Amino acid sequence: MINQPTGAQLVISTLRALGVDILFGYPGGAIMPIYDALAGSGLTHILVRHEQGASFAADAYARATGKVGVCMATSGPGATNLITGIANAYMDSVPMVCITGQVGTHLLGTDGFQEVDILGLTLPIVKHSWLVRDPAEIPAILSRAFQIAQEGRPGPVLVDIPKDVAAAFVKDVPTTGEFPSWQPPQPDVADIKAAEKLIEQSKKPLFYIGGGVEMAFAVPQLRALMDRTGIPVVSTLKGLGAIPTTDDLFLGMLGMHGTRAANIAVQDADLLIVLGARFDDRATGKLSAFAPHAKVIHVDIDAAEINKLRMAQVGILGDLKMVLDGLHPKMQDISLWVAKCKSDKKKHAFRYDAPGTGIYAPALLKLLSEKAGDKFVACCDVGQHQMWVAQHCQFLQNRAHLTSGGSGAMGYGLPAGVGAKLALPDHHVVTVSGDGSFMMNIQEMATLRRYGIPLKIVLLDNSSLGLVRQWQRLFYEENYSEIDLSDNPDFVTVAQAFGLDAFRITSRDEVDGALDRLLAADKPTLLHILIDPRENVWPLVPPGASNAEMMEERWDEPLDSY
Amino acid sequence: MSHLIHIEIDDLDGTLLRVLGLIERRGFFIDAIEMYPIDDKTRGLSVTARAKESHRRFETLYAQIDRLYGLKRVAEPRKAAAAQKLSA
Questions:
Q1: pLDDT tens digits, A458-516
Q2: Which residues pair with A504 in a beta bridge?
Q3: How far apart are alpha carbons A539 and A524 in whole angstroms?
Q4: Is 50 exceeded by the pLDDT of residue A562?
Q5: Do both A197 and A297 map to the same domain?
Q6: What is the mean pLDDT of residues B17-28?
Q7: Going by C-beta distance under 8 Å and a sequence separation of 6 or more, which residues neighbour residue A198?
Q8: Do A119 and B13 touch (CB under 8 A)?
Q9: Read out DSSP for A152-218?
Q10: Is residue A391 located within the same domain as residue A267?
Q11: Residue A115 maps to which CATH number?
């Protein structure tokens, strides 16, 4: 049997054949045969310090590269620790393959040690999954898993491998199997013509773009169509970066924490051209009041998204690149509309002249992104800092704004930074986190030290769960419930204990020098920034309200409504 | 209003739960289920479902079922002879 490979060895050889260069994981009992085969295989394995970190790192690696991210964990708690990351990838359509060890097949269903039905637990949050029962099927299943993860609307795929299946010798080494290459649906020419007609009739057209543009590698096609038509654009959280945020026609993010210019344009538009976006409630606010005057052209690779929440006058199913290349409308004069959009953008531009000498996080983040330039990549956690990054940072490239959008998973930022920095070693990859989020995966600083990953960390510390605090102030009569984090550890000392360089700033005049020091660092470095806990994210559309109802509080004006 | 959905399911772990879970999770009551063998590797499934709320559209549900792997939605049930006899 010595020349016969085991199932585990087939896992490793198949991953290599599929072009995998890096994977993130954590070993344990049921996956030991696979880790045994991994040693000396040439595959780069990043040992994280918690399985959730592996799934987030793989997710970010996939977002940054467009390739499939791979993570591994053992059965039971190892597998369940992956779940938040799998859900995150599912909600944001990220191609990922998760390999889990499982108890031996003879123990399945017996409540064996570290047995959990991970296939059953993850059914609603994967594109597909397998429980492998025959080791000879491993090459074919893994190959198909990679294909499914990437084809159409991307997403996570789970492959659960019982220990005895991984350990078994395979007599006849199978091939990876032949699968017909997936072809995207061809957009219907009649639909393209109908869309062109609507665009030609429109006096106030607007692009509403989502993460699908980036996922479809359709950024050049979108930029070319904008050049052909001169139509302004608003973006979802995940769409940021597809159009440079410095572009005149870019009005900002729409929705709950969107810019006034973007939300006003959506409410005024007579045509929304929706590209790779899904009318998420954070983007639309009260759906029945969203874009009340607009007809809709909805382009998506996923048929289930078209007409799901908003009926489209023209729905186009197909690859975005093909659809955008096919659109050549003869535009009427929309200069008055464009001028109105640009005027609103100027009129409602963010202000950075906050009073006092304390550090104003929006200004700091804006400056950070400008200093980092086109090599800037932000890995956000979830909370106020995440929204400030979306509102104030400059993004000149796509795949540069890695954020937990649909899932809103606190703890994403640090392990995402691990995955993104390994994917993009020549970029200024910066994890922007808050003191609440950072504590959720703080152990991954050990991963930075182990591999010498020179990630830069901007930790905005308001000693509270700021976004929850903001909602409690506005919508729960200032009944502040369980948001105080003033007993945080000394983050600089903690980071130094993990072997990172770390320093703290507390006043505005330190910002410029601190950012220069951070960006020049060639080691993993944490910049701890104390900010005012009373600072909030504005504008804010109250939950359930129309996007026309934007609340805002300025230093020189009371809380008001638009 | 109830709809009758016919699906052919491959013999893979989790496929039945995957499709039934999807129907419930996406906002539909399942009123009746019938399963029947078609061949060694395929089972037929007929589900009678109705929307929990009026804005839940069957067209969207069908598209969500269609994007699952390991099953195929069909217009008419393709029952094996023995199963037809049983259900009769």
A1: 999 999 999 999 999 999 999 999 999 999 999 999 999 999 999 999 999 999 999 99
A2: A528
A3: 34
A4: no
A5: yes
A6: 96
A7: A271, A295, A297, A313, A314
A8: yes
A9: SS--EEEEEEEHHHHHSB-SSPPP----PPP-PPPPPHHHHHHHHHHHHH-SSEEEEE-THHHHTT-
A10: no
A11: 3.40.50.970
- Does residue A60 sit within a domain? yes
CB proximity B53 to A under 8 Å:
no
Q: Report the chain B residue with the minimal C-alpha distance to residue A304.
A: B63
Among B9, B13, B55, the residue to mutate for chain A (most A Cβ within 10 A): B13
Residues from chain B contacting residue A152 (CB–CB below 8 Å)? 67
Q: Which CATH number do you get for residue A288?
A: 3.40.50.1220
**Averaged pLDDT, A524-529:** 98
Q: Which of the listed residues A347, A377, A396 is the one where a domain comes to its end?
A: A347
Backbone angles phi, psi at A302, to 5 degrees: -110, 110
pLDDT at A558: 55
Q: Which of A61, A83, A322 is nearest to A216 (CA)?
A: A322
Q: Which domain holds residue B34?
A: 3-87
Which range marks the domain in which residue A290 is found? 189-347
- Quote the pLDDT of residue A342: 98
- Rounded to 10 degrees, what is the CA torsion of A431, A434, A436, A442? 30
pLDDT category at B79 given cuts 50, 70, 90 is confident
Which stretches within A412-549 are classed as H helix?
Answer: 413-423, 435-438, 445-451, 466-475, 491-497, 511-520
pLDDT digits (tens, 9 = 90+) for A47-104: 999 999 999 999 999 999 999 999 999 999 999 999 999 999 999 999 999 999 999 9
Claim to verify: residue A374 and residue A424 sit in the same structural domain: yes
Question: In Å, how far are A27, A121, A515 from A45, measured between CA atoms?
Answer: 11, 26, 32
Q: Which of A324, A347, A370 is the last residue of a domain?
A: A347
Q: Which of residues 11-50 of B touch A (CB under 8 A)?
A: 12-14, 17-18, 21-22, 25
Q: Is residue A547 part of a domain?
A: no
Count of structural domains, chain B:
1
Q: How many CB pairs under 8 A join A and B?
A: 40
Q: Do A131 and B13 touch (CB under 8 A)?
A: yes
Mean pLDDT of the region A33-37:
98
A366 Cβ under 8 Å from any chain B Cβ: no
Q: Output phi, psi for A97, to 5 deg.
A: -120, 125
Distance from C-alpha of A386 to C-alpha of A406, rounded to nearest angstrom:
13
The answer to whether the CB atoms of A120 and B57 lie below 8 A apart is: no
Per-residue pLDDT at A102: 98
Half-sphere exposure of A52 (CA within 13 A, CB side): 17
> Taking residues A353-376, what's their average pLDDT?
96
ipTM score:
0.90
Contact A446, A473 (CB under 8 A): no
Beta partners for residue A457, in sequence order: A431, A526
Residue A380 sits in the same domain as residue A514 = yes
